Structure formats: C-alpha cells, structure tokens
Amino acid sequence: MLESPVIEIKNLDHFFGKGQLKKQVLFDINLDIMAGEVIILTGPSGSGKTTLLTLIGGLRSVSDGSLKLLGKELCNASGKQLVEARRRIGYIFQAHNLHKSLTAQQNVQMGLELHREYSVGEMRSKSAEMLEFVGLGNRSNYYPEDLSGGQKQRVAIARALVSHPKIVLADEPTAALDKKSGRDVVNLMQKLAKEQGCTILMVTHDNRILDIADRIVHMEDGQLSNANLQLVTAG
Ligand SMILES: Nc1ncnc2c1ncn2[C@@H]1O[C@H](COP(=O)(O)OP(=O)(O)OP(=O)(O)O)[C@@H](O)[C@H]1O
C-alpha cells in the first residue's frame, strides 16, 4: 500500500494586502512530501520560501488552493484547527528564539507545554533526555547567554523535537553559525529525523548543507521550478 504524503499541496496561491495593494506572492504551488523525507527549500531572497513555510506551519491562513497537513485541510481552517495543526509541528528558526530568563532545560520543556498529557515530572525527564541527546546534558542549567551560538541552536532543536513531532519546519537554522557548528546542527537534525521518522522541511541559503537533503526544491518568483522533481542522493 502506498503511503499518503504528510504534506500535500495542490494549486496553492497566496496574496498579501487588499484592494489596490493586493499582491500575489505564491503561484500554483504543487508539492507532496512523504514521511521521513528531508527537504531543502532554496531560492533567491523574496521568492516566497518563508511565506510557504509559514502557511505549511499553520502560522498564516491558507485561502486559495489546498494544503493538507497529516491529512487535515488547512485551507479556510478555523483558528482552533490551526492551533491543533501547530501542536503537531516542531519549529526551528534562525534566531532560535530561546527565552533568556529560562535555563536550557526549561526552554526545551516549553516544547512540551502545549501537550497537556504530560505531568511536570514527565516533562522534566523528557526534556533532560532530549538535551542529553543533542550533547548538552551538562549544560541543562545554563542560561542562553552562557551558551555559544551552536549550543543555543542545539537547544532550539531539542525544544522542537522533544514532543516527537511528525513534521519539523526550519527557517535558516544555520545562518548564524560558523561552518563547523552549522554542520553539527544539520547532522543532528538529519539523525533525529531518521531515528524519529519525522519529516524535515528546511529553508536555507547555505550551500554547504545541501547534501543532507533527500530532495531539493527550488523556488523562484513565487513558483516552484521543475528541478524539484529531481532526487538528490544524500551523502
Ligand atoms: N507580511 C507581508 N506583507 C506583505 N508582503 C509580504 C509580507 N511578507 C512577505 N511579503 C512579500 O512576499 C514576498 C515573499 O517573501 P518571503 O519572505 O516569503 O521570501 P523569502 O524567499 O523567504 O525571502 P528571504 O530569503 O529573503 O527570507 C516578498 O516580495 C515579500 O516582500
């Protein structure tokens, strides 16, 4: 039996603004992403990559076309349905958005607080375990300002993955990192994706990390180019 895609996009358009100022930024996007795939989304600045990522992430409303996330339609979804969708996704952003007043472990724990099924004790042990997994077990009580850029990004990864989401969306996760830290961070993301069977969709301008992708999708002027059909061998 064929698996159905975890992300299924058909004829998706997106517009910003209203009336005279209305401007189309995404044009007829069609894309299927399967479970466990690591996809890199590239393209020039302003081509629409972040807009597409935020639509997939339920951070922006979809109004034209179809976008199904784990089988659920997001086009014209209610606020409640979007919140529900967000619970199933881990987000990693360039600026890592860690809370300065919380320790590394407390930051990771934030990734579980939307999931009401866990007790405080369980949240603590799961976040400690995930920090250990990203190699920061000995930094759990450090505050972000006492961690390096790469360490902060690893805390952000631990936070995104602690709830074992089926989908992880990452926007320029290596932009603020030097070559070695950037490489460590993407290797870690790839390893966790394969071990946890989650799908990763990553926007990046960083050509040094393209090799971790199972597939590279290119966007230009709000359109996906045909090159996205080509499979790239990881390695
Ligand atoms: N909130 C907004 N309101 C109006 N226009 C927007 C908004 N956000 C983005 N845009 C426009 O939509 C287009 C696509 O922007 P987007 O941020 O998705 O591009 P990008 O490919 O992610 O760029 P970059 O690589 O520079 O981050 C651009 O023309 C941008 O100016």
UniProtKB/TrEMBL annotation:
<keyword id="KW-0067">ATP-binding</keyword>
<keyword id="KW-0547">Nucleotide-binding</keyword>
<feature type="domain" description="ABC transporter">
    <location>
        <begin position="7"/>
        <end position="234"/>
    </location>
</feature>
<dbReference type="GO" id="GO:0005524">
    <property type="term" value="F:ATP binding"/>
</dbReference>
<dbReference type="InterPro" id="IPR003439">
    <property type="entry name" value="ABC_transporter-like_ATP-bd"/>
</dbReference>
<dbReference type="Pfam" id="PF00005">
    <property type="entry name" value="ABC_tran"/>
</dbReference>
<keyword id="KW-0813">Transport</keyword>
<dbReference type="InterPro" id="IPR027417">
    <property type="entry name" value="P-loop_NTPase"/>
</dbReference>
<dbReference type="InterPro" id="IPR014324">
    <property type="entry name" value="ABC_heterocyst_DevA"/>
</dbReference>
<dbReference type="InterPro" id="IPR017911">
    <property type="entry name" value="MacB-like_ATP-bd"/>
</dbReference>
<dbReference type="InterPro" id="IPR017871">
    <property type="entry name" value="ABC_transporter-like_CS"/>
</dbReference>
<dbReference type="InterPro" id="IPR015854">
    <property type="entry name" value="ABC_transpr_LolD-like"/>
</dbReference>
<protein>
    <submittedName>
        <fullName>DevA family ABC transporter ATP-binding protein</fullName>
    </submittedName>
</protein>
<dbReference type="InterPro" id="IPR003593">
    <property type="entry name" value="AAA+_ATPase"/>
</dbReference>
